[in-house]
Amino acid sequence: MVRIEHLGIAVKDLKASIALYEQLLNTPCYKTEVVETEGVSTAFFATGPNKIELLEATNENSPIAKFIAKKGEGIHHVAFEVENIEAEMKRLAALGFELLNETPKNGADNKLVCFLHPKTTNGVLVELCQEKR
Ligand code: ZN
Q1: How far is the CA of 15 from the centre of ligand 1 (A)?
Q2: pLDDT tens, 19-62?
Q3: Phi and psi at residue 17, to the nearest 5°
Q4: How far is the CA of 38 from the centre of ligand 1 (A)?
């Protein structure tokens, strides 16, 4: 794992949260992107070498809608940058971590991603992400 790439934060109202985080971080949101396959609308902020990703559900079946219904708004996942996502997925699966997707999928911000089930990671939803080359 190279570094923490971003923290994903589940929010109810993306527009209001963008305004809030622009104040909090004192930096403008540099990108918004809808990932329809994941049922999320996202907004990104740069904080030094790391990022903050705000996530709003685009429909009621979205994982973000379910997360907020269960736990409320808050930190949803921690994303680690990896050099080679397929090699990391193989390594982690062999160690017994449960991968939520068997092949890398398209994520926001030009990334290939894979999620690890929180039950094998102390309750934390972990995202592996690799820049698309
Ligand atoms: Zn993410």
Answers
A1: 18
A2: 999 999 999 999 999 998 889 999 999 999 999 999 999 999 99
A3: -70, -35
A4: 11
Gap from CA of 63 to ligand 1 centroid (Å): 12
Residue 81 CA, ligand 1 centroid: distance in Å: 10
**This prediction's pTM:** 0.94
User: How far does the centroid of ligand 1 lie from the alpha carbon of residue 3, in Å?
Assistant: 13
- The CA angle 132-100-42, to the nearest 5 degrees, is 55
How far apart (Å, rounded) are the C-alpha atoms in residues 78 and 124?
7
Q: How far apart are CA 58 and CA 39, in angstroms?
A: 5
What are the start-end ranges of the H helices in the chain?
14-25, 63-71, 85-94
Q: Do residues 38 and 118 lie in contact, with contact meaning Cβ atoms separated by under 8 Å?
A: no
- Name the nearest CA neighbour of 2 among 132, 100, 113, 129: 129
> 8-35 as b/e, with b when 16 or more CB fall inside 10 Å?
bbbbeebeebbeebeeeeeeebeeeeeb
CA distance 107 to 117: 17
The amino acid at residue 64 is I
